[in-house]
Amino acid sequence: MEVTKIAGPLLIGTMISCGLYGILCVQAYIYHTTFPHDPYTYRIMVYIMLVLETAQTLMLVVDSVDALATHHGNVVSLDSVRMYWFSGPILCGIVTGLGQLFFAYRLQILIGSWVPALVIALLVMCSMGAAMTSGALLFSAGTLMGPLFEKSSMTFTIWHWTNIVCDTLIVVCMVFYLTHHQTVFNSGLYHYINHLIRLVIETGMATAFANALCFVLYTQIKHTTCFIVPYMMTPKLYSNTMLLILNNRIGRESSMEDIDRVGTTITDKAIVKEIASIQNGGHLVRGVKHMTQC
């Protein structure tokens, strides 16, 4: 085995993961200071994601220092699984699942139906189970590239394909619903919906692409750890995506007068109420403030 085929992806993956973690910390600080009155479910999920991402980043850095510095040049030690079995499949599966459930909840509020949310939740349960199993099999293998890791190929496939399907389903449902209703909005809300559509497509497809890339590298490029690069960055993409969606509300309260007097800015539920008001012959001039007080 060539040292560069193992050490190179480990180094690159750790560097990218640390960079995305820095972005996550900035986004978490912005969210904490800007939306202190958001629903407890949102705030708790943000803080849980931050704690999990902090733990994963610390483990990745410690393992990378041990592999690339402490045991520099030792191929056997370099191939050791260390804590990658936990910081990789298990934590990645948990963070990914939380992010997808967050989107499922928002989708249920927007559409008003539990069917898409339940389908997404079932896919999340399947994905998390496969992720936990992959972590256990990687731990039992003891190496990153050893033959025992081949036992996890089926669970690895299930894990990533369910994530890809789940991400794609979220994007398709959001885009279909919002494009179907956007013609009834005034110009300000119309631009907001267009921006939200673009945001969901870009961030949702980014996570789906990362999962697909990880799976392709794992199955097609043997005897290397290239798959670890997207493997390490995937949970950071999910957590950054969630915070990007939440922080994307900044600035709209002044242009759209959508401040809820309790302190919470416009939500998906307010958009649904506005659509219902228009369909029942209401007028947008009454504003979101009137709807939130209903």
Automatic annotation (TrEMBL):
InterPro entries: DUF6534. The keyword Membrane applies. Pfam families: DUF6534. Keywords: Membrane, Transmembrane, Transmembrane helix. PROSITE patterns: PROKAR_LIPOPROTEIN. It comes from the Eukaryota. The chain crosses the membrane at residues 6-32, 44-62, 82-105, 117-138, 158-178, 199-221. Residues 164-249 form the DUF6534 domain. The keyword Transmembrane helix applies. This is DUF6534 domain-containing protein. It comes from Collybia nuda.
